[in-house]
Amino acid sequence: MSDIPQAPADGRSSHWQLQRIVSQLRGAREDWRARNRRVSGEHGGRELPSRAAMGEIL
Q1: How confident is the model over 31-52, as pLDDT tens digits?
Q2: Taken in order 14, 16, 18, 23, is the CA torsion positive or negative?
Q3: Are 32 and 38 in contact (CB under 8 A)?
């Protein structure tokens, strides 16, 4: 038998308190976006390297 606690079927876990952690991380991300004038869901600034760049890297 495993020593790892099993989460209840409804997704709540008193051991890890995942709902609270996720909520706090979401709040921190929203605060960062507000301070840095970023809009939620904003696109841009991230794209894959070109084939030429990948060739140089590898």
Answers
A1: 988 898 887 666 666 678 889 9
A2: positive
A3: yes
